[in-house]
Amino acid sequence: MSAVQTYRYLGPSVLRPDGLAFQTSGGPVPNPRFFTGFLTTPQPAAVGLLAVAEVARTRYHRPISPASLDPVVTGSRDRLRFESFSGCCGVYARLDALPAGLDGDIVEHGTTNVDVNNPLREALARVGGGDPLRLSVGPDDLTVTTLGGAVVEKKVPLPARWLRGFAEVQVLASAFEPRAEIPATEAAAFLRRLPTSSDRSVLWVVPAGRSLRLTSRPVPGAVCLTGATRLTALRSMLRFARSLQVYGPTVAAGSAPVPSTWELDTGALRLSLTLSPEPYRGFSGEGAALTALAGDEVADDADLISALLSWDPTIDVDALATSAGIDQDRVRGALAQLGTAGRVGYDVSEAAYFHRVMPYDAERAERDNPRLVGARALLEGGAVESEGVAATVRSGGEVYRVRRLPDDTFTCTCQWWAKHRGQRGPCKHALAVRMAGTAAEVSR
């Protein structure tokens, strides 16, 4: 299934004598030029672009034929971001070309898919250390000459699964903290020690001096690493990197698998891989955004925040809360709603949100989250009876008991909760109870 967003290319991306020309679509005017200039570190940039493209072509869970999906590129005032999801949607890759990595001006801001075809991959692979790399995102000419002939139009739908993945990743990553930083030489040695087979065992990583140590059990400060082969895309970038930073949420003894981010920094570029908790779990089904989407005011808040978004490199939650006259929790809920259209991302290195230019559809949150739809139906049907920290929910002829825990999460007697134990977001019964509690507070 693909999203409504469809991108049209004037022709294939090509490597010309004067540099690399990416064909793009979208933006405020037909075929805008987001960026024109040189990448100051051409060979690392070429390797990073190939890594992002390779993730898009790879299915790490049950590998089959390449997915051949095109990365997304966003121009945002002082940087370019190239993003992709793996074919199984369990790995999110991003290459950030930072201000130090660009020698040119971003004159238009926008988001589009990038056509990284086989000839372009071969061209990028041939970029040497002394070769200039000139990148033009969105050329203003309407004609592209190739060996095959004149202008070619190509339609590439953005997968709906990628939009759901964008929504989930930004919510999950916003809870990450930096857990370790090691030199690139130590990072290379650590990656060489990792299992090379498709192993599903859950590993945990803890700092050990200037390196990292593997352990089989979670401890405070540890980072989860399952499916270690999913870090393969970092290997080619190691020779250019200064350091490896690792990010993850807070864990304790007995914690279940959680996502993590692994980021190489060259100074001019940052290449990061965010891994889902387990190889078979795609980000599109994690359900992390559901709680934020459950508020009664979230859709209206999203419309307001959407109108206030500017094209700064980051989204300032405090400033948006002040401008909109709402609190920060409601701003984050609005960002989660916008995230269902792929409009919001999160940069763990800068602990800040950023945004993409994509059409916003207020109804997408409902369409992409059937548990949210089910919860609203239960609430509107009077199926929820609250009793302090507990509640009864009648659904499909069954009666379920939902209990609120001290950390503001819920347990439920339904099969969904019994299977996932809250690891894939709340069930529809817990969502309905949360909505009922919110509605009761608003009515007071």
Biggest β-sheet description: 8 strands, antiparallel
What is the number of domains?
3
Q: Compute the number of strand runs.
A: 24
CATH topological fold name of the largest domain:
DNA Polymerase III, Chain A, domain 2
Terminal-residue CA separation: 43 Å
Structural class: alpha+beta
Shape: globular
Number of helices: 12
Question: Ranges with pLDDT <50 over ≥5 residues?
Answer: 6-10, 25-30, 139-155, 440-444
SS strand fraction: 25-35%
Descriptive account of the structure:
By secondary structure, the chain is of the alpha+beta class. The chain has three domains: 150 residues, DNA Polymerase III, Chain A, domain 2 (Roll), CATH 3.10.150; 116 residues, DNA Polymerase III, Chain A, domain 2; 76 residues, no CATH class. It is built from twelve helices and 24 strands. The strands form six sheets. The chain has an eight-stranded antiparallel beta sheet, with helices on both faces. Helix 3 packs antiparallel against helix 8 and helix 10 crosses helix 12. The longest helix has 16 residues. The chain starts with a strand and ends with a helix. The C terminus is likely disordered. One of its GO terms (molecular function) is zinc ion binding.
Topology:
Blueprint: E1 2-9, E2 14-16, E3 19-22, E4 35-39, H1 42-57, E5 72-75, E6 80-85, E7 91-97, E8 102-106, E9 110-113, H2 118-125, E10 134-137, E11 154-159, H3 160-173, E12 177-183, H4 184-193, E13 202-208, E14 211-215, E15 223-226, E16 243-248, E17 260-265, E18 269-275, H5 290-293, H6 298-308, H7 317-324, H8 328-339, E19 344-347, E20 352-355, H9 364-368, H10 370-380, E21 384-387, E22 390-395, E23 398-404, E24 410-412, H11 415-420, H12 428-443
Parallel strand pairs: 3-10
Antiparallel strand pairs: 1-11, 2-3, 4-8, 4-10, 5-6, 5-9, 6-7, 7-18, 12-16, 13-14, 13-15, 16-17, 17-18, 19-20, 21-22, 22-23, 23-24
